[in-house]
């Protein structure tokens, strides 16, 4: 069965470019992004891995570890990483799971046989420190992902876990947020000292509280 938001993600041990990874131990008390690629030496994946390597300081700042997955062995990943460094201007600085036996791909339902019987689709899983699944994305093979969007979602999750707010369409860190409809105006007056605009009883905008 596929994983759903709120589920505890399955643990695994698998080989990677940085040695065996035991997911729960490797995550420790932090967040993780696990994302899969159809195969090594493919053009879109080469650009994606270069982009994640360039964005690694942004994931680090948010306490998020990143791990990629491709269903090829470690020696192939290592050869491919030379191409990534040469063409993308950034060196692989996070582990890439070598899921040649498809153990993790099957556990996380990353192979969608009607799309491709053997290659993984472009899956993304954002996992919180309790090992709870907080976001899934599934992109088709020809479409590279927008990794800035993952950072934006992480900012939203980390904010809304701590404040009684949600984030509106196209929100980015620092923009106005919405007050949860479950919060009364009386409580909102106390919780949001910067004030809020009531556009509708269920739509109240307030400056981002932790800024
Ligand atoms: C890829 O780079 O993974 C890819 C490119 C075109 C079609 C499908 C996959």
List keywords for this structure.
single chain; 211 residues; alpha+beta; five-stranded mixed β-sheet; four-stranded antiparallel β-sheet; 6 helices; binds benzoic acid
Short characterization:
The chain has 211 residues and is α+β, with helices and mostly antiparallel strands. The chain contains six helices and eleven strands.
Structure description:
It is a single chain. Helix 2 (43-61) crosses helix 3. It contains 6 helices and 11 strands. A hairpin with a 6-residue loop joins strand 1 (13-14) and strand 2 (21-22). By secondary structure, it is of the alpha+beta class. Helix content is 31%, strand content 22%. It is elongated, with a radius of gyration of 19 Å. Bound molecules: benzoic acid (BEZ). Residues 38, 42-45, 141-142 line the site of benzoic acid.
């Amino acid at each position: 069965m596929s994983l759903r938001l709120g589920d505890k993600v399955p643990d695994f041990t698998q080989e990677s470019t940085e040695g065996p990874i035991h997911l729960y131990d490797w995550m420790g008390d932090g967040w993780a992004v696990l994302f899969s690629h159809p195969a090594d030496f493919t053009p879109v994946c080469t650009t994606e891995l270069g982009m994640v390597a360039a964005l690694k300081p942004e994931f680090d700042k948010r306490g998020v570890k990143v791990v990629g997955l491709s269903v090829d062995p470690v020696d192939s990943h290592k050869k491919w990483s030379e191409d990534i460094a040469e063409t993308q201007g950034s060196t692989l600085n996070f582990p890439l799971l070598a899921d040649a036996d498809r153990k993790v791909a099957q556990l996380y339902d990353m192979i969608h046989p009607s799309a491709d019987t053997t290659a993984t689709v472009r899956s993304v899983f954002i996992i919180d420190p309790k090992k709870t699944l907080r976001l899934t994305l599934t992109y088709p093979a020809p479409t590279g992902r927008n990794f800035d969007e993952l950072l934006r979602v992480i900012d939203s999750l980390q904010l809304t876990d701590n404040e009684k707010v949600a984030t509106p369409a196209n929100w980015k860190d620092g923009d106005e947020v919405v007050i949860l409809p479950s919060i009364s105006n009386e409580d909102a007056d106390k919780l949001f000292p910067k004030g809020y605009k009531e556009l509708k009883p269920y739509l109240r905008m307030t400056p981002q509280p932790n800024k």
